[in-house]
Amino acid sequence: MRTILVIGIGAGNPDYLTLQAIKAMNRTEVFFMPDKGEEKAGLNAIRLAMLEQFVSEPRYRLVEFAIPSRRKAATPDYRESVEEWRDKLEVAYRQMFAELPDDGVGAFLVWGDPALYDGTLRILRDMQAAGWDIAIEVIPGISAPQALAAQHQVTLNRVGEAVTITTGRRVGEGEADELTSAVVMLDNHQVFRRFAESEAEIFWGAYLGTADELLVAGKVSEVMDEIDMKRREAQARNGWIMDTYMIRKPEKS
């Protein structure tokens, strides 16, 4: 039976790799490397640097696969467009797994943690349900929200509050308007500006854990233009950007 490892590699800092992840990387015969185009080649460069640093006897092969473009769709077609995109990825996975012998070990190096806003595990589980004879092992990693909180030296929750992790799309729809605290990922439109008229604070970070890391904190109304400037400059310089932030309003009395 083929074994597929889904290895969380953290938010970008090689020191974020766990011992479990390093052991899993050293078991792997084939690493499946996503090709997201030249603008995100830096992500694979970090993956390759981790392999070079932590795989003690490199006998592995690299198999690249193209990430299909996703049809842009607004709610309520958003979920349908994501499922369509995952179906295309499953086709690529089926082709790649042919590169493994029947008892081989392949691995995906997943940014952050495989359980948080990553579709790899869902696709593999769907393949299992469809009859594919594969064993799946998941190795957790340090997620962007964890790295963000650590770098800003804040907690993700306050006393008696829940932790909400959501997306920019949902915040733009008003999901976080009544929340006192929320961590926001996948926001390409800086929807945190909707909180500029409140007393809300923002803790923002981009390229967390990497040499390009950027951090900004303060009242949304006071730092939103600074974030916009840093974000645009970094995206122009690197060709891509990955950022996360937490919105925090004053505690309710």
Taken in chain order, the helices and strands follow as: EHEHEHEHEHEHEEEHE
* Span of the ends, CA to CA: 57 Å
Average pLDDT, all residues: 90
Helix percentage range: 25-40%
Describe this structure in a few short sentences:
By secondary structure, this protein is of the alpha/beta class. The protein has helices at 19-27, 41-54, 78-97, 120-129, 144-152, 168-172, 220-238, and strands spanning 2-8, 30-35, 61-66, 105-110, 134-139, 165-167, 181-185, 201-206, 214-219, 243-248. Helices cover 34% and strands 23% of the residues.
Provide an overview of this structure.
The protein is globular, with a radius of gyration of 19 Å. With 253 residues, the protein is an alpha/beta fold. The strands form two sheets. The chain has a five-stranded parallel sheet, with helices on both faces. Strands 6-7-10-8-9 form a five-stranded mixed sheet, sandwiched between helices. 34% of the residues lie in helices and 23% in strands. The relative contact order is 0.16. Helix 6 (168-172) links the parallel strand 6 (165-167) and strand 7 (181-185). The longest helix has 20 residues, at 78-97.
